[in-house]
Amino acid sequence: MPAVLLEPYAAAIERHDLRDWRGRDVDLTSGEAIAQARGFYRQLLEEIAGFATKGGRERWRAFRQALADYVPAAGLAVTIAHSALVDAGHDVRVELDLFEPA
Q1: What pLDDT is recorded for position 98?
Q2: Cα–Cα distances in Å, from 4 out to 20, 24, 70, 75, 87?
Q3: Backbone angles phi, psi at 96, to 5 degrees
Q4: CA–CA separation, 44 vs 88, rounded Å?
Q5: 21 and 77 in contact (C-beta within 8 Å)?
Q6: Which ranges constitute the DSSP H helices of 1-102?
Q7: Closest Cα partner for 26 from 77, 62, 100, 102?
Q8: CB count in 10 Å sphere of residue 73
Q9: Of the candidates 95, 96, 83, 76, which has an alpha carbon nearest to the alpha carbon of residue 24?
Q10: What is the pTM of this model?
Q11: Mind listing the pLDDT tens digit for each residue in 9-64?
Q12: Alpha-carbon distance 19 to 33, whole Å?
């Protein structure tokens, strides 16, 4: 799930100073995409907190909208970050520590 991988990819992008990388068919840099997804995540947290503490149909709708905004933004950010790392010659499995233990 891309949303779960956002922060590991963000850390790899920052570690290799690839925040300004921009793909051919993408309007956002990797840093911009990550920042946008993080902003949606903050909104998601605010909405779920509002629903959890006060309840109500409107707060539930706001939470669902925040979730609907965050998931595709996180997916796009992960896709862009993945492309940036691969384009720069990095092994994503190593960068994200995705190797299985021996």
Answers
A1: 67
A2: 22, 25, 11, 9, 22
A3: -100, 5
A4: 32
A5: no
A6: 2-15, 30-54, 57-87, 92-95
A7: 77
A8: 23
A9: 83
A10: 0.88
A11: 999 999 999 999 998 888 999 999 999 999 999 999 999 999 999 999 999 999 99
A12: 9
Confidence tier at 4 by pLDDT (50, 70, 90): confident
The tokens of 69 are what? 């905004």
- Would the pLDDT of 93 be above 60? yes
Q: Report the distance separating Cα 49 and Cα 79, nearest Å.
A: 28
User: Which residue is it, tokens 């539930």?
Assistant: 60
Residue partners of 59: CB distance under 8 A and separation at least 6: 47, 50, 51
Structure tokens at 45: 């947290």
